[in-house]
Amino acid sequence: MTGSGQESFLHTIAQKLGRSRRSGVTPPDWMQQSSLRVRSDLNRDELVEQFVTNLEALQTKVVRVLPADFPHALADVIDSFTVKSAIYWYDPDLQHLHLEQQLDRHQVKQAVCPVGGESDSFRSVAAAADLGITTAELGVAETGTVVLFNGGRRGRTVSLLPPNYLVILREERIVPTLADVMAHIREEAASGLPACINLITGPSRTGDIEGDLAFGVHGPGRVRIILLKEDGQDA
Q1: Structural domain boundaries in the chain
Q2: 22 burial class (0-12, 13-18, 19+ CB within 10 angstroms)?
Q3: Which residues does residue 138 pair with via DSSP β-bridges, in sequence order?
Q4: Within 10 A of 215 (CB to CB), how many other CB atoms are there?
Q5: Which of 19, 39, 227, 234 sits most deeply, having the most CB atoms within 10 A of its CB?
Q6: Is 15 exposed, middle or buried (CB count within 10 Å of its CB: 0-12, 13-18, 19+)?
Q7: What CATH fold (topology level) applies to the domain 44-228?
Q8: How does DSSP classify residue 68?
Q9: For residue 154, what is the DSSP state?
Q10: More confident: 230 or 64
């Protein structure tokens, strides 16, 4: 389409819309317009509250517990999601929480990401598992997002394939905004970045052309987050 033909076409579209032909773009002031902006002076409890509020709006339950109470929170997830099989990352934090032993106690069939990363056989197991379990590098108060550093024995399929997903996050890892996430990534870049960085906000949601929302089409349809308080905090 020539320049004059393009102008004629756009002019016709503008007429059909009942307005004059527009030209030029005025960049928005995102700092002014963002309704999600979190104040930088929020304390830890206020950041957690904002994080939880945003996730509850996305049909995601968040539970705050001390590490010693993790077994009870996990048992509730297993019961609520009727979990018979689970997959999870190989992660020191999960080892410290004795995840393997807790799943055994509930007779949950389990598999951990193998050495060398995700194999075809592990992907097959992941596709049939009821629950995927990972930790998160960060949580974002302004959106309710969790940030995953994937690579090696922290496979992406764990958070993508099972219909139910459990995230374990330490409360001190919640930051105010996505800008803080980018700053953290820049700091980590000096020592090498992970193979993939995943940002996940609530369950998988897909909208069709009529605006109907479906959950779990392209990922887990149900998500639970267990926030671990620092030892010494009130239960």
Answers
A1: 44-228
A2: exposed
A3: 147
A4: 17
A5: 227
A6: exposed
A7: Rossmann fold (3.40.50)
A8: G
A9: B
A10: 64
The identity of residue 64, as a single letter, is: R
Cβ atoms 114, 153 nearer than 8 A: yes
Which pTM value belongs to this model? Answer: 0.79
3-state class (DSSP) for residue 151: strand
Q: For 80-128, give the DSSP string.
A: HTT-SEEEE---HHHHHTTHHHHHHHTT-EEEEPPTTS--HHHHHHHHH
CA dist 204 and 192 (Å) reads 29
Cα–Cα distance for residue pair 223/3, rounded to 1 Å: 50
Q: What are the CB-based long-range contacts (under 8 Å, 24+) for 71-74? A: 71/98, 71/102, 71/105, 73/226, 74/99, 74/102, 74/166, 74/226
Q: What is the pLDDT of residues 32-48, one digit of tens each?
A: 444 445 556 788 899 99
65, 231 in Cβ contact below 8 A? Answer: no
By DSSP bridging, strand 145-150 and strand 196-200 are antiparallel
Question: Which of 191, 207, 88 is CA-nearest to residue 148?
Answer: 88
